[in-house]
Amino acid sequence: MRSPASTYLRMARTMDPLAKKIFKGVLVAELVGIFGAYFLFKKMNTSQDFRQTMSKKFPFILEVYYKSTEHSGMYGIREQDQEKWLNSKN
């Protein structure tokens, strides 16, 4: 079984220069997306104030966060946020 690195090197030798640039660009874009999603999740997971900002600007992203945490077995975050935000308005 070949390692992913040797497969990549073998592919890199057989591709033309434009294909190499496109492949590298797609790879970099995917890595940026993965790390961006990780840091966004980490920030939302540790800051209730940031989640409130997200609820105002990007509610659909906050909904994905809530569903993913509930799916992983962490319940009550949504309710705690709603309770705090409701109390802060009063």
UniProtKB/TrEMBL annotation:
Keywords: Membrane, Transmembrane, Transmembrane helix
Segments passing through the bilayer: 21-41
Keyword presence, Membrane: yes
Top-level taxon in the UniProt lineage: Eukaryota
PANTHER family (alphabetical): PROTEIN CEBPZOS (PTHR38001)
Protein name: Protein CEBPZOS isoform X2
Source lineage: Eukaryota, Metazoa, Chordata, Craniata, Vertebrata
